[in-house]
Each structure stands twice: as C-alpha cells, then as structure tokens.
C-alpha cells in the first residue's frame, strides 16, 4: 500500500476538483479522485442520449461555454487549447425580447469576449485532467464520511456504502454540500463532514444556490429562421437562455441540437411544488413541455423536435462567494481544502481559480513535511 504521506484525496470531478487534482499530480503528489457520478465534469458534463430510432445524441446540458479574463486562468486555457481540449466558439449571439418578439441586440462575433468550449464536449477538459499520470479516478463512488484520525494526523474516507476508501495526508473537496443540511434533505443522511472538525468551514453551512432546468432538444433540420446560435431571453418567466449545441466546434452535425435553460424563478417554483428530491419523470415531462412551448412561441416557426428531455440542476449557481481573497477555504492543521465556484465567482473561471488556489495550498504544505 502506498505511503499515505504522499496521498491526497480529491472529492468531486468538476472543473475545480479536476484542475486541482492534475496540478497536484504534476507536482509528484499521488491523487485519488472520487466522484459519485458516472463520469467527470460536474456542471461541465456531457449528456449522451438515444433517440427513439437509436441515434446517439450528445448534449452539453450544463455550462454552454466559458470566458476568461484572469491571467493565470488564461495561461491554463492556452495550454488546454494547445492540447486540443478547448476551442473558441466563433458565432454571433444576441438577446431576444419576448414582449416584442424581437431581437434587441445581435452581437457580432468580433466584438464579443472569446467564448471557449471543450472539444469534442464540455467534459473533455475534466476527462483529460482526471486521467493525467498520478491521478487515479474512481467514479460511482460517493463519500459517506470524512474522519480525522488525530493520533496519525491522517484523513480516513468512507464510502456511502460503508466501504473503507483509504487514508490520506490531505483532502480537497469541491462539493459544497458535504457540510450542508441540503445533503440531508436530498439523501436523508447526515452530511459527510462534521463541521466540528473544521470550524473554519462554517461558511459552507448554507450557501444559497440558484436552481435551473435544462431542456435538450434535437431537430431533423437546422432552425435557419433564428439569426443567431445562442441568445438570452428578456421578459420570459420560463426561459433565460437558448443555444445551438451542435454549432460548437468538434460536434456532430447529423442533427441540430439545442439546449434551453430555464429562469431561476421558474425552477424555484417547480422545486417549491415538488421538493428537492430527484424529480419524477412526470415533473420533468411537464417542465419539458412548458419550456418547449415558450421556445416555440418566439415566432420563428420552430418545428416540433424529434427528441426532448429535461434535466434539473438543483444548485446550478451559487448565490454567494465565500472566499474571494483566498479563493479557497483552507484548514492548515488538518490539510483540508474546499474549492469551487462558490469560493470566487459563479462561473467556470471562478471554479478554475479556486482549484488552482487549493492545489497551491496543499502543494506548499506537503513540500514542507
């Protein structure tokens, strides 16, 4: 068994956890990454669906793209671009007013900030980072308990099924729900991390979050009546954003695929009626019908799609930033870091910055041991 002194557990394979894991591994740290999902990506994951006739359909149903202004993140993204993991999405975008049923703004691509996407899917970046040398990734493994062993100065991790997952010198967690009552509301179990172990993390206790529904649509023919490939919606109670996912670089153009995002208010109303538990098929079907109807009512003569499926992001966007200066939460004595967009800013760039900060804290601490 490997010496625990060189081992770090990273919990969560979204962009923040994946960036942190890859940087630690490149600096000689042995990283084991755990995620309860089937694959990497978190809110940058890609969804694989099958149409009724068995056709494979891929959707980026979370973050549609990301922009970058921070120099540290720009250099990271330049590296990804050189490795073919990201590309620029060079198309025109706009804003559509549902009151007047008109576009009030169409931005020419040259005047926009660069929009980056993962290639061939948004999850490609996390996928590559999670499989870098020195990172052992374990999917379908949820963490049930983080236990601090004082006399050995080590962390012991246990799976939700009670399985012992090993001892680690340090832990990085990128899921804010590990200390939140929200975890109990969703699973019926106690949060995996006892706040008494790291009182510094009390800020995590109840970070407000904004929910969102995503609707994945596939059409047989291009929606050529829509003059842009992505647009925000103004004065709609149901939709906030629509984009042509198949127009991104590196995507299959066999069918035209669109993703719609609901407004926060609409998602909140649905959750108020149905609860935080996993939504039923009936709920998702109703949501899908309502979101599609709003899209069809834009007046572009949009035909019925041959595929339609809704997905709920229960905590799509954090409504607070809890570590803007430090960019991550850090318990030096127990070598425990918490990173994610909720630390810096509610976007991909914020998540990357937080992952870089957490890696820096652990790297510095482990080098001094």
TrEMBL record:
GO MF term list: oxidoreductase activity
Residues in Amine oxidase domain copies: 93-360
Residue spans crossing the bilayer: none
InterPro entries in UniProt: Amino_oxidase, FAD/NAD-bd_sf
Name the record gives this protein: Amine oxidase domain-containing protein
Superkingdom of source: Eukaryota
